Amino acid sequence: MKAVVEIIEGLKKLCPKDVPVGIRLCAEELLDDVRGNTPEESMMSYKIAEEAGIDYFSVTAGWQESIVPVISRDVPQGSWLHLAKRSKENVKVPIMMLTGSLIRTFRHKAIEKGELDIWEMCRPMIADPLLPKKVLEGREQDIRWCVACTSAWRDCSATLP
């Protein structure tokens, strides 16, 4: 975490005070077979980053090398939400997460229950970087929808905020 701390501290010096600096960290590596970080060690990393001045966390689970699937269509929606909740119990800064849910009511309920503070979109924002602007302008028909290559696609309109 020494390099991470130095990067956070350097960014905090470079960025204006009103620009939040966040980090995406694994809350559970799922690498027990090769002695990856334990969940407790992962939370220690979160605490170290928070002490270094991080403004928010983007919570993730696993790696490509993990023997447990993390984002395939076979993983039920919300399977990793408990990691966001665990992260919130260990740090005081906002917690973000890709919930793995295409259903907006699911994501909003997770926020209402205090399991996370902000839900993220990754692939939809790659497919159409102007998605939020189009939603705000009522131009949903102009959105270039993500084909969600690793998910069983349900209803494109369900991805709207």
Mean pLDDT across all amino acids: 83
Global shape: globular
CATH topology of the largest domain: TIM Barrel
What do we call the CATH homologous superfamily of the largest domain? Aldolase class I
Number of DSSP-assigned strands? 4
* Structural class designation: alpha/beta
Task: Itemize the secondary structure elements and their pairings.
Blueprint: H1 2-14, E1 22-28, H2 39-51, E2 56-61, H3 81-90, E3 95-97, H4 104-112, E4 118-119, H5 123-127, H6 131-136
Parallel strand pairs: 1-2, 2-3, 3-4
Summarize the structure.
The protein is of the alpha/beta class.
Please tell me about this protein's structure:
There is one protein chain. The chain is 35% helix and 11% strand. It has 161 residues and is of the alpha/beta class. The chain folds into two domains: 2-120, Alpha-Beta Barrel (TIM Barrel); 127-161, no CATH class. It has a four-stranded parallel beta sheet with strand order 1-2-3-4. Strand 2 (56-61), helix 3 (81-90) and strand 3 form a beta-alpha-beta unit. It is globular and about 45 Å long. Mean pLDDT is 83; it is low at 150-161.
Task: Please give a handful of descriptors for the protein shown.
4 strands, disordered C terminus, TIM Barrel, 4-stranded parallel beta sheet, 161 residues
